[in-house]
Amino acid sequence: MNYDVAVIGAGVIGSLIARELSRYNLKIALVEKCNDMAMGTSKANSAIVHAGFDAKPGSMKAKFNVEGTALMPELCKTLGVPFKPVGSLVVAFSDEEVETLKSLLERGNENGVPCLEIYGKEKLKEAEPYISDEAKAALWAPTAGIVCPYELTIAAAENAVVNGTDFIRNFEVKKIDFNGGIFTVSNGEKEITAKYVINAAGVFCDETAALIGDTSIHTTPRKGEYMLCDKSVGHLANHTIFQCPSKMGKGILVTPTVDGNLLLGPSAIDIDDKEDVTTQADTLSDVLEAAKKSVPCLTTREVITSFAGLRAHCDKNDFIIEPSKVNAQFINVAGIESPGLSSAPAIAVYVKDMLLEALDADEKSDFNPVREEPVRFRHMTNEERKALIDKNPAYGRIICRCETITEGEILDAINAPAGARDVDGVKRRTRAGMGRCQGGFCGSKVVELLARELGVEINEITKFGGNSKILYERTK
Amino acid sequence: MQKNIICVACPMGCGVTVDIADNGEILSVTGNTCKRGDTYARAECTHPVRSLATTVKINGGIYNVVPCKSAGSLPKEKIAECMKVINSVQIDAPVKLGDVLVENILDTGINIVATNHCPAK
Amino acid sequence: MLNYDIVVIGGGPAGMAAALKARECGVESILILERAETLGGILEQCIHTGFGLHYFGEELSGPEYADRFIRLVDEQKIEYKTDTMALEITENNVVYAVNKKDGLLEIQAKAIILAMGCRERPRGALNIAGSRASGVMSAGTAQKYVNIDGYMPGKKVVILGSGDIGLIMARRMTLEGAEVKCVCELMPYSSGLTRNIVQCLDDFNIPLHLSCTVVGIHGKDRVEGVTIAKVDENRKPIPGTEEYIECDTLLLSVGLIPENELTRAVGINLDPVTSGAIVDEYRETSRKGVFACGNVLHVHDLVDYVTLESQTAGEGAARYVLGKTDTAEYITTKGVNGVRYIVPQKVNIKNDGDVKLYFRVGQVYKNAKTVVKYNGEEIISKKRPRLAPGEMENVIIKNDMLKNFAEGGTIEISVEV
Fold this sequence. Notes:
The complex is a heterotrimer of chains A (476), B (121) and C (417). With 121 residues, chain B is α+β, with helices and mostly antiparallel strands.
């Protein structure tokens, strides 16, 4: 297939860029090496929309963070993605850290972050009743929020597909040739061509750039491990609670999630393997200990799962969003670590503008920016449920008991534009299997539904594509 | 020869030692704390038996397999061979609980019977 | 709005026994709600034998045990709805449930019997480090795949947890041709029945590693191996004892948790030890007219006891519906010194029958005795050659004894070595 633009990487950045570009009369391919979108950094991060006081004034990070955070609430509304403007607190535990808060406030003002305020001990305790008694003060940032990062990615990709983008899964870019002003992008078996390539390959952005001979990007995968707690302790944090930042990142946070769970993390360890998302027992216990510094009553008892994500830490310590020096038709969107999620909406617009200058395309008359929020049975009133099941009985069968997810919702997830193809894909779209039993009961039913809808045997269904099959052959 | 076995006649789980002569005669049973232990240990050393529960392949049923069991105890050493026989059998749905699926398996005098229903698709 | 005298939530062994008993006691209008496609609950996938030894005096498989009750439910023409999930119980005993056929059901009940069973503890609760590869599942999930769907979930298997489900699955997977490398147990003893250790592990030369756990899971897409390690007396892994075991599957059999979401949501008081409701001798919860029985109340090791307990709850619900309840003067029960919990947690001393107290100990004891005290005074003492956490114990408090107690008193059960 021949495209105007090939976006490599269906993370939150690539998916939002594809969506922005799909407003125009362009042929766009969103190319992903995995079986689904949001399979890298976008699925395992802190899910925070940062206010924007961390980054150095004048940096790309500062610019896109503040702009992106401003765009986020409206974007989430349009895409039917949960966003909660909970605000954030950076907590100081010593006089020295109180000074840090003051400099963060100043930096925030310089970056254009609105409504920052320093809370004294009393006001902090009022905002967060479970905060440690050792906490002395906090920087309050009301514009910060929480979002579901993989739902945002999925929604953006779906909307891009509805508006004409081709989503190409399981296409690992191994070779890029440039001839006569056109790129040929190959996975070793198949190829596509494109006039422009956008490198949004996350932790693989350096290797992807190197495919055209651009070796200017130096990133290190930085692993962050998290613990997710049951909803029964969701009330222990009302806002995102940070500790004072260090050289390695923003420290361990304690935050509510949009689904009402509590998230602790991340650690920050530089590693070599770009696919190593294993968790380590001692790292996780360090995470918990550090989180207890903020909220002392946390225990392991309520932890329902733990996970690790990688971010592409760049040696320049800033985002790289520019045409490659090697080939101006190849645009690097690289080194997108925190605050990458917050910045994503603004980065997408910026990259779109950059391309439009070169490509000169018309705006589509029939672009539909809206992606309707999927049916969420658990959030409905009984009246709404009644009407829903009357229309489609599939919503009357509960598949996931813990999260109250219906067969109808799972079918919607599978049959959506660029829908789920594996168990984890269903889980990210519907929350089936994300509850207390972690898929113990519903896992096999989800496998059955996937097999039925995709027209394959149940032992062909995978957890997340590749060789992650769940079942072997028939017993007999 | 000495054989150490754990008695399962009751939840106590006594460790029982059985002394067996070369001709197979049981010389002594020690370590048991009751008569049932003695009986169990002797049986376990001379002709150990087990019940077997598995599944049988079904054609045209709402399930791929139906559960089954041996309607009595089987010689322990024949369990693996019994599995081979059971795995080679295919039954057409419908199957009713209690249906004999394999008669007199390996001439043991024991039937393999369905332990659940499997209606036709 | 539908109206029933008794709505039973859950059509497994507990729900069916409770409904049948309530019918026997004279309640006509009963409805069972079952979330699965058929009645029978978890027994449907427990195809091994060993069920019913106490209740029927026979060795039945799970589906056979269930079938006896399903037939009785049919004979007694007790109404039931399968594929139906109860979503909510209100304070006025209205049950909201859904299924494909009826849509959203609104059912007014005079009494409700909670019989939702339990679920398996997931990996997250253990925080096993390592990858998120495919091939890690609970033993019960694997049991369903093998016994009902007829598919193999793995070829080379390590099992963590030596509870009965883990042991049973070790044998089951072996019989179906898998290689079970070992069973690891965190505790210094197995919580499974001796019989299962002998017949499920020893028979097949499957090693049982006590005081041992899985500390790492390896493999990117599918599990390729696990690291196991010995643990010290505080159950912490001992550095240097790690051992890598190649496998494609890790089955978890690490405990069961009563499924009390509905119970909790309606504000019924729960016992932190059992994770089930606090009940009286008829298994009535802190909410009048709401009863609980079976594994949703506390995890049982034998279904026979579930049946007996559920009959008690069914009788209690029937008495409540028929207006035959006694005046209530309660004493409380308390497990101390080695006894983890007692069910029921409170007893009405105006009750006109004997009361059986079920309890569980926290560790293995040999040649100990269990002592029952009322307000500190020993009333019953019994020698027990062996006590184990995996085996539920019971003691009967005779009615004439009960009559001597006074409201507000306490019965304590303890282990003395």
